[in-house]
Every structure is written in structure tokens, then in C-alpha cells.
Write a structure and sequence with these properties.
Radius of gyration: 23 Å
Strand order of the largest sheet: 13-12-10-5-2-1-15-14
Strand content: 15-25%
Bound molecules: 1-O-alpha-D-glucopyranosyl-D-fructose
Number of strands: 22
Helix content: 25-40%
Structural class: alpha/beta
Number of helices: 17
Shape: globular
Amino acid sequence: MNPPWWKTCVAYQIYPRSFCDSDGDGVGDLRGIISKLDYLERLGIGMLWLCPVYASPNDDNGYDISDYEALQPEFGTLDDWIALRDGLHARGIRLVMDLVANHSSDEHAWFIESRAAKDSAKRDWYIWRPPAADGGPPNDWQSVFGGPAWEFDAASGEYYLHLFSKKQPDLNWENTAFRAELFAMMRRWVELGVDGFRMDVINLISKPEGLGAGGDEGGMDRALNGPRMRDHLAEMRREVFAGTDLVTIGETPGMPLELAREVTDERAPLLDMQFHFEHVDLDHAPGASKWDCTPMTMPALRATLSRWQEGMEPHGWNSLYLGNHDQPRAVSRYGDDGRYRRESATLLMTLLLTLKGTPFIYQGDEIGMANVAFDAIDDYRDIETLNAWRWLTGERGFDAAAALAMIRTKSRDNARTPMQWSAAPNAGFSTATPWIAPNPDYAAHNVAAAETDPDSVLHYTRRLIALRRETVALQHGRYCLLDAEHPALWLYERLDASTRCVIALNFSATAQALPAPLNTMRRVLTNVRNPSADTLAAWEARILVPA
Ligand code: TEU
């Protein structure tokens, strides 16, 4: 039996606000993406994940949707979307849309009706609770973006739950009428020709029994993988996806490996694959805030990803990523964005594209885009970052320099600066001042420069994608770690019935001996100019096959 299409292709993620602005308003848009379709085709991708493009007041850049069936006017019209869909399909690229259904915007008609009165027909579509005995919030849950997860509504005297911002009220998946309407909406997008959905925090949809009991402390962690999550996902699969070959990709923070394996089990899948968070949570201590960074080591990264590689066998499936619109840039976090920027960016791309699972390249990583160090908090735009600034400089007592250093390291805006197309003003992203400033390094690091440099991250990424596409072992072969102890080298193989590929990655700035017998294997790809037979240069990545 042929494997499903989404197991063999490489995916690319677009954050539309920051990709390409076609109409000179400083905001990326659908026509901008359409103007780059040939670029995407040349990369060799088979799937595009488009972050939300629906109507939204932009409290959280589109993750607060006010109409699931209208497009955000600053991004374009339905005709533009159809042109994008057709342009992708003509190039053999499937289109995956973002589904943000744990919460909506507070400006969605559903919430406006829900809030209007206690006896409104849609009251129960959101999560309302009476105040605690002292008049305060029903419990002590905190929102992911800071502050209480409950907002008081004076008109009705009740609180509503929002695990993210107060403009993102949580929907009530226990309400049957809501679920029916949501699934109908999804079916309409399926009829319009989408090829699947990436599902935002989809493991938060089932809240624990007794939610709102006083004294319960926590927040998102208390709502993870709730009691009816499986039922809801199974119903969605039946109601929306039965008889289709669409892909479903869960964003599932805090989903343990055992559950992820069960949920993506190809014999009875609830989701086709999911994004876990264990490797992106390695640089802060358990329980500590993401801003309280601790160094992350390659052995920790290797141990975590190897556990997921092995643990999803034989019937589960991984989504692979090293960065996205919520994370710092991969080269700054796991690599060396100074002296070895090109080498470490290509090494990380090699890792991403040679693990087992469906790899997601985040826009700009194919040219080695790095974190930005803005001068002042005023340059940042992200709601989480701006809230964190108030908390770090307030309650936590950090001075401005220390707080800014923490934000430069971890802010989601690191990944949201405009895509660097050229050395032209605004990085060739827009003719107007962009909604967020470009990273000043764009003069040297941009697509146009990468096109003319045969050693660029971009050319290497294209070669790597082509190699993965023609090498079945790199798509479906089993992952096998060859050395769990080496402090700098990560060595693994991908094995199927007919082929064996060995991947050797030097996560250090010092040359490392390539252990026998790997030094006798044939090299099919390396990211350095003059590779030596038995030594890996600083940040060298090598793919080997039997001689
Ligand atoms: O993110 C969910 C999530 O839990 C994290 O990625 C979170 O944004 C991060 O840990 C904060 O440090 C998804 C979206 O990807 C994100 O952009 C949205 O803000 C969030 O859901 C709410 O919709």
C-alpha cells in the first residue's frame, strides 16, 4: 500500500503578515505569497501550512478569529485565496490551513451573542462561571500570556475563561450545537479545496471536570489532554474527514509521547501527526517561565528527539520542526549565528530533513534567518512579549537591560520579522514601513544574495529536499541512534529494507574524528567545501551511504 502523501513530502510554514507585501501597506498578504509561488516550487516542498488568514482584530495576529469564513481584508479576498490555492495545486503543493478552535475572538458573533445575556442561546458556547465566594475569579488559573485566565463580565456578573488573551475566549466543546456548527464550517473549507488543517492547541479543547472549583491553581497545564479530547477528535474525524485524504496536524503542547503515539496510530488515527514541545522547552527549567533561560545542550536535544523518533514506532508519526512563528530562530538557538552561521544553519536543516516524520521548514530558515536584537521594547509587537515586559520589569524586578536581554533571546517576534528577500529597503518585503522592523542583518542575509552564492543555505536546502524526495530510507526508514554519549557528534542512521543512510552532525566549533567504519562510507552530501575523509569540520553535516 502506498504511504499517504503527507508522509513523503516536505512542508513549509508561512506567517502571512511577514512573508511578502504586494500592495504596499507594510503587511504581508495573499497576493504576496502568490508572487513567490515559483520560489516555493523550486524549493521542492509538497505542503504549505498557512498561519491564520481569517478575519481578526489581531490581538494575537490572527489567532483570535472573528469570522472563520471571511478573509482578513489586509491579507486579501476569497478570490485571492482561490488564486493561491490553484497556484499551489498547479505546482503539486497542498494547502494546509490553520484551524484555531480552542478559542475565538471576543469579537466573533458567537461570543457577542454568548455575552449578551445569561439566557442567550449561545451562552453555553463559551465557558462561563459565577465568581468565587469572595467575588474573585472562579479559580486561580493563569493565562498563557500573563494575568488571570478569567475575565469578569459586569453585565451578567459572571466570568469567562480565556487560556490565552482576554480577547481569546475559550469555546465550550461540551456544547453539541457548537461542535456541529464548527464541523459544518470546516466542511465548507474542505469543499473549497483545502488539503488539511493544522489545529491550534487542539489538546486543550476538553476542560477538566469540575472546572472553576475554587483554589485550583494552574492554567493551560490543567486543561491539557482533557477527559473528552479523544471523543471530540474522533467525532471531528467522522464528521469532517471521513472518506478524504486530507491531513490533520495537531499542535499539542504537553502531550506525552505515549498519548501522541496512540492519537496518531495509523490503524485508528485521531490525528495524522502532532507537534510536541519537548525540544523547544529544553532551555528553561520545568516550571520556570520561558524567559528564565538555561543553556540547552546538544546531548539533551539528541536524547529528547531520539526518544520521540524511537517512541513513535511502529504506528505513530512525528511532525518535525526546529522553529516556527512562536519560537526563536533555530540557528540562534541550536546553532551558532555568529562565525558558523552558514554551517550551523545547514547542519540544522540536515537534522530537520533527515529525521523520520514530516519536516516543517519555517519561512526564512532556508536562508538562515537569525534572531533580532531590537534596541527597545517599543520595537516589539507580540502580545506575549509586551505582557512579559511588564511582568519582568514589574513583579519580577528586572532592570530594563536585563529584561530586554531575556526578550531578545526568547521573544516570538524573533521569528516574525519580515522575510528577507533582498538588500533593497525593508528587505524587499514591502515598499512601505513594515508592521514590524526587519532584522538589520538583511543586507547580507537575503534570498537574492543566496541565489548567487552556490554555498548558500538556500542552495543547500534545495539539494537536501531533492535528496530526501529521491531517498525512500530518508522518508520511511527507521531511525537508529548510533552513539548516545558523544558530547559533540550526533550520529544516526535511517534504515529501510534496501537502503541505509548514516547522518553525522558535528554540533561544535571544533573538528571531530569521524569514527570507523563511518569514515569508509560514501558521502552523498556535506555542508562544507573541502571535507576530509575521516574528520568532520566545525558544524559539518554529512550524509553517508554504504560505499
Ligand atoms: O500556540 C500555542 C502555545 O501554547 C504556544 O506556542 C505559545 O504561543 C507559546 O508557548 C507562548 O510562549 C498557538 C499559536 O501557535 C500561537 O501563535 C498562538 O498565540 C496561541 O496558540 C493561541 O492561539
